[in-house]
Fold:
Amino acid sequence: MNQIISRRDFFDGIAVSALVSPAAARVTHGAPGHAETRQNAAYRPGGFTVRGDTSEALSVPHALRDGRFWIHADTPEPTGERYDLVVAGGGRSGISAAAEWLRRDPGAAVLVLDNHDETGGQARRDALRRRTREGRPDGVMCDAETFGTDTLVRLSAPGWADAAPIAERARRDLRMLHADPPDWFPRLSAEEKQERLAALTYSEFLLRVCGVHPDVERFCRTMPCREWAYDTRAFGAIDAWASGYPGFGGLGLDRDKPSRLNSPSVRQEWPANAGGERVAAPPDDRARLRMSSPVVFARDGARAATVGYFDGHQVMTVEAGSVILACWSAVIPYLVPELPDDQRRALRSAVRVPLLHATVRVRDARAWRRLGVRRVRWTGAYWGFCEFEPPATVHLLATPCRSELGPGAGAAAGRRELVRTPYGRLEHTIRDQLARLLGPAGFDPAADIEAITVDRWGHANAPEYCRPWHPFYPDGPFPSDLARRRFGRIAIAGSDSAPVGRADAAAAAALRAVEELAR
Structure:
């Protein structure tokens, strides 16, 4: 009973778990808002760091969601501070909103609040996404999780399909998809073919339309994970066609322009439309930043809005002439319960997709040079993609989404599993997979790994309307139009309000929110 319990621990359920035995805490580990913080907080190996959506960062939002926060919180205490603008969210959208407000009004008083301990949010993830999509994988690890054995297939090698540990018929099907696929819909017009593709996932296209061996679908399953954070069981066939995936060459579709049925990101990234992403404004030193200070409510008023945030011990309040909520849309109904019911439902429908990014500092690059590949896609292991960055850094991505359930339900299920995943397992899987990949080239994880940093984003990629999951796309009406509706002095930003998964969507949403409040 000598363990120190912080105020924040009450909101993450640790006050309850502290009363049980260590063995019981281990058994109940990972239950939402319960022993997850306690167990992971005890995990402190040398050279292993977790950032992003840590237990500490999520404790208050989860307590609000579960109805536990106000049971333990004291009466809010006014700070006496008044700002022209208060922004909830210190990520790309929140920082852009603050910078744009100060550009229009250089003398304004601006406060940015965030539940994380640093600004920038997922800008690191966005930077990795930009880098990894510049080059396709040059290797595929057909792993034991999928095929019962680990076999590295070097895609630059002649006849690479023959090296895959798959059935002989699957090899023939794989070669056919890449080299000479037929017209699967010979009697349909181009528009009808696109409609047919829009009704299918890529996995369904491979299995139902192409009739390939199941090993082919398993070999291709993780292809979209590094960009979309879910696999081909959730990735639409219409976007797979636009992304150059194998199997569509015989359809005769126009490659000069995207289909109207392609998702917004695919359409915007089409070569003819590519004009570079909108760059978010850097943090403005005139804005006051308060990290580890999650917003717990925002109330509109006759003369000013009131914003409450938790400073780790007490709920503090400030007054604001305007408020921009640049946080996850799904949390906004808990911050502004006065919103109309239809708007609250629309906000809750924005389910973000979880993602993990690991940065591993290795002693040297000799094993990678001997291996002869730089970017490797795994077919079923926990970390689905790894890339070597000279001189001595390895990046890994993991996508916990349960893709077989679809991007929305799968993201929610994957996030629940991620909360239950001990930090120790994250470290173990990184070391294990690098040993399996690089061990034959002389890599020893115990000696050759110097440090590991994991960015854990339970709420990573913004949701994006796409076929076949959103039949109202592209004609509308869209839930996001209702979700981002201004509420008095409160405007809603964030990439969820676009909703587009591209990194620049957050900056564009911030500019829109500032413009709404300026009218």
Notes: The chain has three domains: 69-119+283-350+476-518, 125-133+352-461, 169-269. Residues 69-119+283-350+476-518 form a domain with the FAD/NAD(P)-binding domain fold (CATH 3.50.50.60). Residues 1-6, 13-35 have pLDDT under 50 and may be disordered.
